[in-house]
Amino acid sequence: MNAFKIGTAALFSAALGGLLAAPALAQQQTTTGRTNDFSYTWLQGGFQTGDVANPDADVDALFFEGSYAFDPNLFLRGGVSFYDGDLNGGSRADVDGERLHLGLGFNTLLQDRLDLVVSGDIVRVRADVEGGGTDRDTGYDLRAGVRHHTAQQVELSGGVFHENVDERDTGVYGEALYKLRPQVDLGARIALGGDASNFGLFGRYNF
């Protein structure tokens, strides 16, 4: 087992421990009334670039996403990505399409300045490959991690993900937010998986 798999397994173990403790943590938050004042209602848009292993391709994407907190511990989330890329190899055929996701998230206070965040999404992907027809797949994306108010204007978050759409993939993700104004953040994010990896920049408006 390589170092990446060992690290991912360790993170999943930590995330599972957090999930098992989540009901008690949520009850504690409800009882004490304490929160970290993170916003879970926002809209964001940005650009990301990355690569996938199957098929072997370099892919760029524009994405638009949103989150709506309908309860102190629960939020709806969803988004769409429009991507365009090239298959690697001799043909350099063009590939484009979109990815839609919609799901539910849970958050609760772990300690001062630190929240546990988990989510599950239904994912729908369409890919058109030049000379190769159209593929459509439906699956899911599961995530578990933490969100930390690291400095007055900086938030950091990270965790693990597992998705099963066209291919199964497991990896780690991270995100950084810099508060430009009370309701406006500039963000960067990265996801590193066995099948796909990407890096993105975005702007977020908090409500």
Automatic annotation (TrEMBL):
Keywords: Signal. Residues 1-26 form the signal peptide. InterPro entries: Beta-barrel_OMP. Residues 12-159 form the Outer membrane protein beta-barrel domain. It comes from the Bacteria. Pfam families: OMP_b-brl. Coiled coil: none annotated. This is Porin family protein.
